[in-house]
Specification:
about 65% helix, five-stranded mixed beta sheet, Heat Shock Protein 90, alpha+beta, 2 domains
Length: about 260
Amino acid sequence: MKGTGEEVVSLFYIGTAIMLFLAFGLLFIVVTYQRHFFRMKRKEAENMLKVSLESEKNERARIAADLHDGVSGDLSAIKNYLSVLAKKESENKEIFDEIREGVDAALQNTRAVSHNLMPPLLETEGLVPALKGYLEGIGAKAQIYFEVTSNGALALPASVAYQLFRVLQELTTNMVKYGNVSKCDINIALNKEVLAIDITDDGTPFNFKENLMKPNASGLKNINSRLHAVGGIIVQEEERQTGNRFTITLKNVNNA
């Protein structure tokens, strides 16, 4: 009887051990599957974001081209036609001049919208020249001195240059609208595969993280989304008494 009792106890322990082993094995399989599932979902979301941003870029380029080639061409033709009519109809010259001025204004506005949608320098010259051209325009209007420097020519993939331009456009637009800024320095440095962009201004201190949590912070959320799509991050130097400093970092730039 003693031997039988010991066998029962042994079988109990063995059975318990087997059940625990199976339970832990099943738990391991479930956890592994969940991790794989969430990893796949995250990857899928990242791919969808990249596709969405690339589609936006292509659509902007298409609309900009349509405005430049189509509407601008039509307005230029109308302007030339009015000039011819004005010479023939001297008594209505003032009216023709007013119409021509209106067409001129519409033509300039169309070109401005076209360049804002897809800056021509971005594709032909790259990020730094496009950024300088853009900031010269808004800086003159807002009376802000923007200085853009870099450590040489930056050979960036077109998709990376485009997203960075939009990020810097959003940051500088916020400076113009809300920052009370008079001077802003932007330094762009590419060292091997690591790109660092340092943005410093003398405006009102601004907490990026706190404002990012606000429901109407779509512009700041877009900054994060665009940087995430190209493997970048933005970090703010906190506890500054005056002004703001942000650093954008991208690793493995050519693989973004």
